[in-house]
Amino acid sequence: MPELPESDLADTVLARLTEAYASAADPVRAVSAAAYMKNIAPFLGMPTAERRALSRTVLAGTPRPDEADCTAIALRCWELPEREYQYFAADYLRRHVKRCSSRFLPVARHLVVTRSWWDTVDTLAAHVVGPLVAADPRLAAAMDAWIADDDLWIARTALLHQLRYKEATDTERLFGYCLRQAGHPDFFIRKAIGWALREYAKTDPDAVRSFVESARERLAPLSVREALKNI
User: Fold this and answer.
1) CA–CA separation, 14 vs 16, rounded Å?
2) How far does the chain reach from its first CA to its final CA, in angstroms?
3) Rg value, the chain, Cα
4) By CB atoms within 10 Å of each CB, which of 55, 151, 192, 204 scores lowest?
5) How far are the Cα atoms of 14, 54, 132, 141, 230 from residue 18, in angstroms, in the given order?
6) How many CB atoms lie under 10 A from the CB of residue 102?
7) Are residues 93 and 2 in the same domain?
8) Among 117, 79, 115, 123, which residue's Cα sits nearest to residue 97?
9) C-alpha to C-alpha distance for 221 and 83, rounded to whole angstroms
10) How many CB atoms lie within 10 A of CB 12?
11) Model pTM score
């Protein structure tokens, strides 16, 4: 686990957050929410709209964070048992990722591999790791290592980190990563390949169509269907 920095802002936010979220808990809804998410964690049972409204109240009047604040808030939220606290942290990082440098990548990796499921991993991939790599292209080398990682959530993050890049997408990496994991047996990797390709097809459908046709024998049918869904 990365070192947990001291942060007065994190102290304030966590005190407010745990009080506000706990007061809005719905035990009945929590059971169904946990079941929907395959019981990867307990839930408080708050609808997304209500949770985000509470989050705005929690953050009202707080200053913009620095990287240490972001690290402390994220790590402390990840230590709490209920899943909504991880959602809060992921949303917070998404909002303030520009306050973080390339040194934040190991923290992001820890969050990806801890209590891993698509609900947090996908936000971290597209809205935290992706912007970090875009801001410091040297981190692309880390993505080259992540795509070969044995942890499927790290590999999925590498596949999805360019999801919002549009014209700035490194197509050689995108297509190379898809081929690197084309034979992966897990649904979440095969789905991620298709999703990454489908999203880039909004920018360059011809390139995606050409790639899929050339790699059809290697790609899983799920990946092909997802990639070509809108073209």
Assistant:
1) 5
2) 43
3) 19
4) 151
5) 6, 11, 28, 38, 42
6) 14
7) yes
8) 123
9) 32
10) 17
11) 0.97
Residue 142 tokens read as: 């880390």
Q: How big is the CA angle at 133 (ends 199 and 188), to the nearest 5 degrees? A: 45
Number of domains in the chain: 2
Q: Return the ∠ at Cα 96 (arms to 56 and 79), rounded to 5°.
A: 75
Residue 5 sits in the same domain as residue 73: yes
Nearest Cα neighbor of 121 from 159, 167, 178, 164 is 159
Query: What does each of the 231 residues of the chain score in pLDDT, given as a tens digit?
Result: 899 999 999 999 999 999 999 999 999 999 999 999 999 999 999 999 999 999 999 999 999 999 999 999 999 999 999 999 999 999 999 999 999 999 999 999 999 999 999 999 999 999 999 999 999 999 999 999 999 999 999 999 999 999 999 999 999 999 999 999 999 999 999 999 999 999 999 999 999 999 999 999 999 999 999 999 999
Length of the chain: 231
Query: Using a CB cutoff of 8 Å and minimum separation of 24, what contacts does 94-100 make?
Result: 94/123, 94/127, 94/128, 96/64, 96/65, 96/70, 97/127, 97/128, 97/131, 97/132, 98/131, 98/135, 99/64, 99/65, 99/66, 99/67, 99/69, 99/70, 100/67, 100/70, 100/132
CATH number, domain with residue 211: 1.25.10.90
Residue 121, in any domain of the structure:
no
CA angle, 155 then 129 then 181, to 5°: 15
Tokens 């999703």 belong to which residue?
195
In the block, residue with structure tokens 């809005």: 24
Q: Are residues 154 and 90 in the same domain?
A: no
**What is the domain range of residue 14?**
1-100
